[in-house]
Amino acid sequence: MPMTASNIGGSRGEPLRSASAIVASTESGQHLLKIDGYSGTKDVPTGSHIQSRSFRVGGHSWHICYYPNGLNSTWSDYISIYLQLDYNVPEGVRAQYTFSLLDHGGKPVPRYTLGSEQTFRDLGWGYATFIKRDELEKSEHLKDDRFAIRCDFTVVTSKEIQTMDVDIDTGAIPQPPVVVVPPSDLHRHLGGLLVTGEGADVTFEVDTRTFAAHRCVLMARSPVFHAELSLSSLTTTNDGAAVAVQIEDMEAQDFEAFLHYIYTDSLPEMKGSEAAAMMLPDLVAAANRYKMERLRLVCEDKLSGFVNVTTVAVILAFAVEHHCLGLKEVCLKFLEDPANLREVIKTDGLEFLSKSCPSVLKDMITKLAAAQ
Q1: Is the pTM of this model over 0.70?
Q2: pLDDT one-digit tens code per residue, 316-333
Q3: 20 Cβ partners below 8 Å, 6+ apart?
């Protein structure tokens, strides 16, 4: 068919119309906090809070912090109220929230209804000046030494915001499916098995500690474990007890983190950068030993964040020794900056590299010379 205006566009040159919408999945929740025995809570020092029970909304666990004598000395005449996650979420959780003082009928009092939208990580958000204590005590909202605060909030539940088609005539956005499939929680169940040790059939002795584990999980995750823990490779005890394996080349805390990754596909939370910097290299060695490529790459990525003037030489030497190509590239890019290189020279970093990996230093000098 020959191409004409009518078949490559709309009829008689009319534009083709379409529409789409950017939609973020959300989940809304509500938590009612009743203060029964208000006068007793006034003994709590300024800056200290009473925490509500935890509740779940948007796939996360939350609680409310009630400061009867203010968040700090600046707001000691006020009641402060905050919404907070139960745990640190590095990537953040976006949420809209509203705190309301309720009247005796359970309705929000407009004067004391305050709302905002924030990204929650490890800090709570709320209001240091929610209501003055003397205003509450003089109001009708405090009765029989009781009052109530309600928190209404909406959480963005999906990290990926969806784009979908919209009806061009009505502007209607397709409704979400009635059946909503939650994210996989396999890692949580497997992690629970590791914590409880239920059904464990192998134990590892590391330093003075013993770790119970499951052969089938380990064999599925690592080809080395598959070879070392197969039934043909082990001699079971006569009483059916779990087989004991001695680990000589790892410290107990590193092996614990290693098992955590095997069961959950994630690293445990490491308290402080110093602890992470000490543990990550050992986990890289374990990843290479047990042929777990993804674990090595996860550790490489985290170690990349520790590259600076004082550490780059040591990290580069480590990357070369343990075949961490991505981490090596990060270090070399850092050294390509003349300002960084000058500072590294002041720390004797190049002298260290000349002794630990002279070939890398030679290649780097050659590359820098060619760039001049």
Answers
A1: no
A2: 889 988 999 999 889 888
A3: 163, 164, 165, 166
